[in-house]
Structure formats: C-alpha cells, structure tokens
Design brief:
The protein is mostly helical and 87 residues long. The chain has 5 helices and no strands.
Length: 87
C-alpha cells in the first residue's frame, strides 16, 4: 500500500503524485515512480507524459486526459491529510 505525502517544498510534488495515480489506473504505478525518481526535476505537464512513456504506460492519451482532468487529485489530498493527522 502506498500513501502520497507530497512535500510542500517541492512545487511539482502534488502534480507528480496525481500523475502517478493516473499511471496506476493502467497498472504502471511502480514503473512511473521509478522513472520519476530517476529523472531530473520536473518542470511541466509534458514531463509527466514523457515519464509515462518511459514507464510504458499503455495508453498515453488516456494518461494525459487523466492528468488534465484532475480526477486523481482527491486521492493525493486524502493521503496528505491522513499523514498530517498522524503527524
């Protein structure tokens, strides 16, 4: 089980966590996370697509749509709130 706790000092961390959940929808969470941690710092949405491609996310259009529509953001927010509650 993985819980997201994006650091407030890393401005791209919440978006990266949401993108990882989009990769998870297609069974590529671990590969996406490995690619993200091996990559240089992320600067924008195009980088999430490149990471998804390198993580062999099967349907990149679906991935991009997921990142754009923000449907995985509540998962990240819930995890962050849980972590804060637990201190």
């Amino acid at each position: 089980l993985f819980r997201h706790f994006p650091l407030r000092t890393h401005p791209q961390a919440p978006d990266g966590a949401a993108a990882a959940e989009c990769a998870h929808e297609q069974g590529r969470f671990d590969a996406f996370m490995a690619a993200a941690f091996a990559a240089p710092p992320i600067v924008g949405a195009a980088d999430w697509r490149a990471l998804a491609d390198s993580a062999a996310v099967p349907d990149l259009q679906r991935f991009v749509a997921c990142v754009k529509d923000g449907r995985t953001r509540p998962i990240v927010l819930r995890d962050r709130q849980l972590g804060e509650a637990l201190q």
